[in-house]
């Protein structure tokens, strides 16, 4: 098979937030599973480098700079796809950990914009192409924060609850169409940037999130879960998959050594 024939025959997966952490690992996982992956994020150099790494490994990847909060940009991106097999809505994250009494409304807004409106933009724009494929999959990477709250988490928790509701409602609305909606809700995952971003670049505060936890989930663990869910036969819909490290029995019960 020529490279062009291979490209034409491979299923295509778009991954948002593919410049780091879970999104980057998911791009690697889906590429290894035979997908042509389209890596999107705001930081061009990071997705370019990852696309090159995947291509050098003999798999298929391309990079496209995209801010999911920019609807016009998302619509322009979607025009590239007459049909599409998978979209992984992963771009997002937390900002701050203040109580409701003192939380920054601007940070709440930004979290809602990225996690919820970003997922809405991308899903709306790509749904026609996913439907046209005859076998599409929407993945929403929410969080266990989308299923229970904790002190200091309300802004992020509210956004992730909304993302969960988006996934659940979409599944109800499009039943009968050839598109699955899969929600993956990870617990504590140690990625290079998530906690740093949350604590505005403070490495000490970020390190405390994982302090004493023997084995938090890794980005690869979550990517493995996403890849498994996506590669089930198309009539099998993993509605919601909660994945935590063994040391975390609930949002509240995290075992720390020492
Ligand atoms: P991360 O390493 O901080 O990655 C976040 C990704 O989102 C980056 O690639 C970032 O890329 C992208 N992003 C942020 N804002 C964006 C925007 N406006 N447009 C496009 N891309 C944007 O975090 P992670 O740990 O991998 O988390 C990935 C997802 O899993 C998030 O939705 C997060 O809420 C969720 N999650 C994480 C954990 C955890 O403990 N780490 C647990 C549960 C759920 P650019 O900055 O290059 O745009």
Q: Can you characterise this structure?
A:
Helices cover 44% and strands 17% of the residues. With 258 residues, the chain is of the alpha/beta class. The chain has a single domain, classed as Rossmann fold. The strands form 2 sheets. Strands 3-2-1-4-5-6-9 form a 7-stranded parallel beta sheet, sandwiched between helices. A two-stranded parallel ribbon has the order 7-8. Strand 1, helix 2 and strand 2 form a beta-alpha-beta unit. The model has no long low-confidence stretch (mean pLDDT 97). The site of NADP nicotinamide-adenine-dinucleotide phosphate (NAP) has 32 residues, from helix 2, helix 5 and helix 7. Belongs to the short-chain dehydrogenases/reductases (SDR) family.
- The percentage of residues in β strands lies in 15-25%
CATH class division: Alpha Beta
In the predicted model, the low-confidence regions spanning at least 5 consecutive residues are none
User: What is the helix content?
Assistant: 40-55%
Give the gist of this structure.
Belongs to the short-chain dehydrogenases/reductases (SDR) family. This protein is an alpha/beta fold.
Set down the secondary structure blueprint.
Elements: H1 3-9, E1 12-16, H2 21-32, E2 36-41, H3 44-56, E3 60-65, H4 71-78, E4 86-89, H5 105-132, E5 136-141, H6 154-173, E6 179-186, E7 189-190, H7 194-198, H8 203-210, E8 217-218, H9 219-230, E9 240-243
Parallel strand pairs: 1-2, 1-4, 2-3, 4-5, 5-6, 6-9, 7-8
Helix pairs in contact: 2-9, 4-5, 5-6
The protein binds NADP nicotinamide-adenine-dinucleotide phosphate.
């Amino acid at each position: 098979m020529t490279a062009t024939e291979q490209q034409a025959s491979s299923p295509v997966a778009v991954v948002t937030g593919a410049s780091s952490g879970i999104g980057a690992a998911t791009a690697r996982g889906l590429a290894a599973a035979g997908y042509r992956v389209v890596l999107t994020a705001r930081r061009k150099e990071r997705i370019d480098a990852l696309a090159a790494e995947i291509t050098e490994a003999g798999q298929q990847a391309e990079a496209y700079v995209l801010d999911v909060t920019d609807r016009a940009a998302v619509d322009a991106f979607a025009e590239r796809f007459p049909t599409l097999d998978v979209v992984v809505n992963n771009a997002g994250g937390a900002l701050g950990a203040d109580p409701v009494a003192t939380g920054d409304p601007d940070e709440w807004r930004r979290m809602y914009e990225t996690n919820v409106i970003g997922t809405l933009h991308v899903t709306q724009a790509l749904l026609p192409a996913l439907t046209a494929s005859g076998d599409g999959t929407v993945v929403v990477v929410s969080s266990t924060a989308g299923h229970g709250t904790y002190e200091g988490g309300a802004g992020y928790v509210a956004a992730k609850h909304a993302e969960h509701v988006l996934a659940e409602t979409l599944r109800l609305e499009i039943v009968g169409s050839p598109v699955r909606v899969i929600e993956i809700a990870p617990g504590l995952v140690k990625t290079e940037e998530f906690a740093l971003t949350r604590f505005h670049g403070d490495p000490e505060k970020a390190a405390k999130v994982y302090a004493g936890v023997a084995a938090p989930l890794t980005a690869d663990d979550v990517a493995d879960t996403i890849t498994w869910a996506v590669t089930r036969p198309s009539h099998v819909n993993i509605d919601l998959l909660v994945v935590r490290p063994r040391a975390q029995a609930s949002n509240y019960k995290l075992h720390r050594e020492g």
